[in-house]
Amino acid sequence: MKRALLLLLSVLCINIYAQIPEGYYSSTSGLLGEDLKLELYSIIKDHKEFTYTSSSTDTWDILKEADQDPQNPDNVILIYSGESVNAAQEYNNNNGWTREHVWAKSRGDFGTSRGAGTDCHHLKACSSSINSTRSNRAFGVGGTEVIYNGLNTGNFIGVAYTFEPRDEVKGDVARMILYMAVRYNGENGEPDLELTESVFGNTDKQPIHGMKSTLLKWHKDDPVDEFERNRNDVVFSYQENRNPFIDYPEFVDKIWNVNTSIGNAFDQDEIIKWTVQGDLITLQSDQILNKIDLYDMTGQRIYSNAGIGTNEHSLTTSHNGIIIVLVDDVKPFKIVL
User: What is the pLDDT of residues 213-244, one digit of tens each?
Assistant: First the structure.
């Protein structure tokens, strides 16, 4: 009965703070690419920082709540093995669990110092053994399966110094890495973290992490689930900042799958930004868009709208391949669908 009451109270507490504050992302409206990335940084920077280990509230305490097993509030779920283990034991001379820096702390050499080293949006409860196996490997696909306690784990280490987590947490991992690439951009003595397609050896301390294309794919293949949403709320209740890619997964495409075309008309440069998400094309401009025409490579017009009158316009097309976009009859550019 006592445990049931505690669990009920826990749920009630979660519901109290399990909401995005009103207006939290309002300043991102209409932004794409680097503009959106910088605006998200301005929203989530300057979060409340906690120590890695201390007698007061530290990262152990936050992870005990953030990674709590919904079926057993005394336990935490370990990210790569999926085990549910006693949370109170912490490290316990390597008999308990440890804290995994999903963005490897050597990639930027920030260690466990306040800030990137203690940011619980990318710290996860983890088994010590698999934590050591993963080390500071880039995230990639394939390799030799990791065996833990005699069991297959669904995690793999690659020859090219990569690590593939089990399917159930691929998206979680991706969104943590993407968060770090936005939250830390080199200001105020913080590391400038960036995504890369390259894979580096274990001694390289550059502030870059890969593999970008793999992480973007995992983000789509493994959507946000309730455990991840609750975790975002818990960390927010301590750090007072959120992972925007859990709240709004579409931000990922708007930042990393955005392309920019620059045209010239009437002796004035106009930047037209466009995103492609499946059949949806969104065009944005710093000037009013009046008319948009789409043509295939044979010159056949496949779309036309002459009554827009706004800075942003979305349309759908089932066409595949290269198309020509003509804006206001004078600004043509190509998009690959």
Answer: 999 999 999 999 999 999 999 999 999 999 99
* Tens-digit pLDDT profile for residues 271-321: 888 888 767 888 888 889 999 999 998 889 999 999 899 999 999 888 878
Output Rg (C-alpha) for the chain, integer angstroms: 23
Q: Give yes or no for a cis peptide into 211 (omega within 30° of 0).
A: yes
- 247 φ, ψ (degrees, to nearest 5): -70, -45
The sign of the CA dihedral 145, 139, 122, 18 is: negative
Backbone φ and ψ of 207, nearest 5°: -80, 50
Task: Report the C-alpha gap between 70 and 67 in whole angstroms.
Answer: 9
Q: Which residues contact 126 (CB under 8 A, 6 or more apart)?
A: 78, 79, 80, 81, 97, 98, 99, 100
Closest CA to 235 of 124, 97, 128: 124
Q: Whole-structure pTM over 0.85, yes or no?
A: no
* Element holding 286 (H helix, E strand): strand 280-289
Q: What are the angstrom distances between the C-alpha of 102 and each of 80, 134, 281? A: 11, 10, 33
Cβ atoms 337, 321 nearer than 8 A: yes
- Paired with 124 in beta bridges are 100
Tokens in use for 166?
């089990």
| Cα distance between residue 80 and residue 126, in whole Å | 7
DSSP for 168-222 reads GGHHHHHHHHHHHHHH-BSGGG--B-EE-S----TT---SEE--HHHHHHHHHHS
